[in-house]
Write a structure and sequence with these properties.
- This protein is α+β, with helices and mostly antiparallel strands.
- 27% of the residues lie in helices and 24% in strands.
- It starts with 6 loop residues before the first helix and ends in a 6-residue tail after the last strand.
């Protein structure tokens, strides 16, 4: 919910209220993301939705829009600790691509963080890392910050 709300609102309703707000989005059948499963157990999550659903992204100086194209944005990942560093984020991105193609999305945008070391804490890479996006076929299209590129994937619908 942190991307969907003003920072003050997110902080004010931290915890159960944010969980309830996310649950309400699911119950409203809103586009919110994809899940990864192993043996019918959820092990990962990737948030993806139309960019305009993310208030804080729309108001960001570093991640402001680069053009007027309609895009869906990949804003965060969560992967269960036992499955981290096993390419699950790449699998989630591949799922995002299929999900977006099924929804006739032409452009998918991501905002990974460039790791500052090999041992970067997991908490600092919740938006993903560039190498996973590159392996999924995303390309860097803009960089206004040393650590935060804007990357795009152009789906099969992009030329239609």
């Amino acid at each position: 919910m942190s991307w969907r709300l003003k920072k003050s609102d997110f902080e004010r309703q931290k915890g159960e209220q944010n969980k309830s707000a996310m649950r309400a989005l699911v119950e409203e059948n809103r586009k919110i993301g994809v899940l990864a499963y192993i043996d019918n157990e959820p092990i990962g999550w990737c948030a993806v939705a139309p960019r305009e659903e993310y208030l804080r992204l729309e108001n960001s100086r570093v991640l402001k829009r680069i053009d007027n194209e309609q895009v869906w944005s990949v804003t965060c990942f969560f992967i269960s600790k036992a499955f981290r560093r096993k390419s699950i984020s790449l699998e989630l991105l591949n799922g995002v691509i299929k999900y977006c193609e099924n929804n006739n999305v032409k452009i998918i945008e991501g905002y990974p963080v460039v790791p500052y070391s090999e041992q970067i804490p997991d908490a600092f890479v919740w938006t993903g890392i560039p190498s996973a996006f590159e392996k999924a076929g995303f390309v860097e299209v803009e960089r206004r910050s040393k650590a935060k590129p804007i990357m795009r994937y152009f789906t099969v619908h992009a030329n239609k």
